[in-house]
Target: 3-hydroxyacyl-CoA dehydrogenase NAD binding domain-containing protein
Amino acid sequence: MPEVNVGLIPGAGGTQRLPRLVGQNLALDMCANGTMITAQDFKSAGGLDLIVADNLENAAIDFAKNIKSRPSKISDRPVSPLSADDLKSIRTKIEKKAKGKKAPLLNFEAVLWSSDPFNLGQPKERKLHLELRQSAESKALRHAFFAERAVAKPSIIQGVPPIALEKVVIVGGGLMGSGIATSILNAGMSVTLIERDDKACQQAIDRVDQNLTAAEKRGLITEEQKASRLASLVTSQDYQDSKGHDLAIEAVYEDIAVKRAVFNSLAEHMSDKAILATNTSYLDPQKIFGGIANPERCLGLHFFSPAHIMKLLEVI
Model:
């Protein structure tokens, strides 16, 4: 039930039918928080009749034949209300997470209408949905939703063939560098991470492992995908290992002399066509790259922390 993320409540019975299927507790989490769950968990909660892995046509025919034996219509099912203490606790958590947004608490109220007969709750849900569609909050959130997707395909690069990127070297394996490495691995590329010694290399690997483990726990990647990505990560203490890479990203501390030394070392071993990128947040990239051959391949890639979660990337 993602409507809350754009300042809305479901408008076609979602807040009234869902509690009748899975109970108010899960319905509140899905509607007011926008929480996603797996199909298997949703089936276990009563939200799905069947999950079909193969032979879809036969399964559909069998389901249709047996549909007459289904329980009463969803809209006719009663809802067991939560206790006052449970509702107070849930509301407090939703309010804290909402951070001033109105839609989460309005979803909370709408789901509670499911305690009443369907013919009373459904019209109220529809009325509130239509009102929220005209609200400034929802209009702003919808604008942001579509704007984020529009900038992913800027018109300025239409028709420009992309450069193939397969191997990326990252210098610096701290919180930012390991986050960038995680992001690059998630994009399907291999990563060589350069650090100063064995201890720093192991710490960088551990940070990337923690990032991927967190993604696995959230259901964003599978155990196999995590293992594959970790297998695509190697560490090094030698800039010679940057040879043959398509892109280098520097993520060391904000000292222009240190950054210049990093890129001089990279340029010594990488192709003069390889892209060199600094993650600096405020230093002048032109000064960082001063004296580098073929300077048009140099740019700033300013990731926002945590780099493997924040989608925004400033390209300088």
